[in-house]
Write a structure and sequence with these properties.
394 residues; alpha/beta; six-stranded mixed beta sheet
Length: 394
C-alpha cells in the first residue's frame, strides 16, 4: 500500500493492523495510543514509501545474483567459521567498580553488545545475551563464547540503544529481562512495537527517525542514516526502520554503526556530529553478494574516513557465524588494511574495559586461539547454522 492508500483511521485501526500482520494487538490504552502515534510518524517518514522503509540509495536487501549462486560456498566453502578452541575472555567486574579516569570507558561483550560508560552514564548497545540468534532457542547460529558478564552482573544501565530489529541485535529473551528493570530504550522508528510485546511500557521507549534526537537519562542520542534492512519474518520485511547512532555525553561523542553498508551519508554525519572519540563499525558477516548492506573490513575503513576518523573499534564479529568467511578473517583483514587508511584501531579482548584516550596498540587477541586449522572443518558449524545463511536475514 502507498501512503495515499492508507487512511489515518485512529488508534483502534492501528491496533488491528498490528494484529493482521501476525503480531499481538496492543493490550492497554497506552499501547493503543503509542500504536496510533507510531503509525502517524511512520507515514510521515521520508524513508517510508509504498508500505516499506527504504534506503536513501535504493539499495535492496536481496542476495546479489540470487542465493543459488552462493549455495556451493555455503555448504562446501571449507572456511573455519567457528573457532577451534576457547576464545580468551576477561571478566570486567573489578574495573566496572572503579570510575573511568578519562570519562569514557568501553567494554565489548561480543558481537554488537557494548557497555559505554560515558560522562557518568552507562549505555548498553544492541544487547544479546542468548546462546543463539534465532526465532527459536534450539536452532540457529550459536555463540562462540560465553558472555563475559551476565545480565544480572551488569552495573546499573541508564539507557539501551537498539539499532534495528534483526535477531542478532534485538534478542527477545534479553529484552524481556531488561524490560523488568525499567531501563529506557532508544531505538529506530517502528521497533517500539516489538519492545512493547516484550514487556516494555510505552513511556520507556523512544523511537527516532533519521536525524531526530532525544535526551534520555542524561544521554543525548541521534538516529542517523544507515544502509541496511529490517524484519523478523518474511512478512515483516522493512516494516521498521534501521539506523546508525550518535551517542553524546557532556564531553564525549561515540558513533555506533548498527548494521550498514557503505553510504556517502557517513560524510554528512561526520560533518554534523563529529569529531568522535570512538567509532564503532561493523566488520563481520560480509560477502560481495550482500556488500550493499554490510560493510566488511575494507568498507568499514572507508566509512571511518568519511566519518572524519577517530579511534575505530570493530563490532559485529567474533561471536556468531553469520557469513561465509573464517571466524577470524574480519579482524585479520582490518589490521592488514588499516595502515593504508592511516586509521587508528582498538581491538579489545572480549570483556576487557578500555579507555579510548589511553589506547596505544592493537591487540590481535584472536591469534591466541591455538591450532585454528588443526581440527579441520570444526569452524564451519553444524547443519542448522549453515541453513541460517541462505539469506542475509541477520
Amino acid at each position: 500500500m502507498s501512503d495515499e492508500q492508507i487512511d489515518p483511521r485512529g488508534e483502534a485501526a492501528a491496533a488491528g493492523d498490528v494484529a493482521a500482520a501476525g503480531e499481538e494487538a496492543p493490550a492497554s490504552r497506552a499501547q493503543m495510543r503509542s500504536a496510533g502515534l507510531r503509525r502517524e510518524r511512520t507515514l510521515a517518514s521520508r524513508q517510508f514509501r509504498d508500505g516499506h522503509f527504504r534506503n536513501t540509495s535504493g539499495a535492496r536487501d536481496g542476495v546479489q545474483g540470487g542465493p543459488m549462486k552462493i549455495f556451493g560456498e555455503l555448504l562446501f566453502g571449507g572456511q573455519e567459521r567457528r573457532p577451534p578452541a576457547a576464545l580468551p575472555i576477561e571478566r570486567p567486574h573489578a574495573r566496572w567498580g572503579q570510575r573511568p579516569e578519562t570519562g569514557l570507558r568501553v567494554t565489548w561483550l561480543g558481537h554488537s553488545t557494548v557497555v559505554l560508560e560515558i560522562d557518568g552514564r552507562r549505555v548498553l548497545t544492541d544487547p544479546v545475551f542468548a546462546q543463539r540468534v534465532s526465532p527459536v532457542g534450539f536452532i540457529g547460529p550459536r555463540r562462540f563464547h560465553p558472555v563475559p558478564a551476565g545480565l544480572d552482573e551488569l552495573p546499573p544501565i541508564d539507557l539501551v540503544v537498539l539499532s534495528h530489529d534483526h535477531f542478532d541485535h534485538l534478542c527477545r529473551p534479553t529484552m524481556r529481562a531488561l524490560a523488568r528493570t525499567g531501563v529506557p530504550v532508544v531505538t529506530a522508528l517502528g521497533v517500539g512495537a516489538h519492545l512493547e510485546r516484550f514487556g516494555f511500557a510505552p513511556d520507556r521507549i523512544t523511537e527516532l527517525d533519521w536525524y531526530e534526537s532525544a535526551e534520555v537519562a542524561g544521554v543525548h542520542v541521534t538516529a542517523t542514516p544507515s544502509q541496511h534492512f529490517s524484519g523478523r519474518s518474511l512478512g515483516s520485511r522493512n516494516r521498521t526502520l534501521w539506523a546508525s547512532w550518535v551517542i553524546r555525553g557532556e564531553r564525549h561523542r561515540v558513533f555506533f554503526s548498527g548494521d550498514t553498508g557503505l553510504t556517502p551519508e557517513f560524510s554528512e554525519i561526520g560533518q554534523r556530529f563529529g569529531p568522535f572519540d570512538l567509532v564503532m563499525l561493523e566488520i563481520g558477516a560480509f560477502h560481495p553478494a550482500w556488500g550493499q548492506i554490510h560493510l566488511g573490513p575494507r568498507n568499514a575503513l572507508e566509512a571511518h574516513r568519511l566519518l572524519g576518523g577517530g579511534l575505530l573499534m570493530p563490532v559485529h564479529w567474533g561471536t556468531f557465524s553469520l557469513g561465509f568467511h573464517a571466524w577470524d578473517d574480519p579482524g585479520e583483514e582490518l589490521i592488514a588494511l588499516a595502515p593504508s587508511y592511516d586509521a587508528r584501531l582498538v581491538t579489545p579482548r572480549l570483556g576487557a574495559p578500555f579507555e579510548p584516550a589511553r589506547v596505544e596498540d592493537v591487540t590481535p587477541w584472536w591469534r591466541e586461539v591455538a591450532s585454528r586449522r588443526a581440527r579441520g572443518d570444526v569452524g564451519a558449524g553444524d547443519a542448522s547454522e549453515r541453513a541460517q545463511l541462505l539469506l542475509p536475514t541477520e
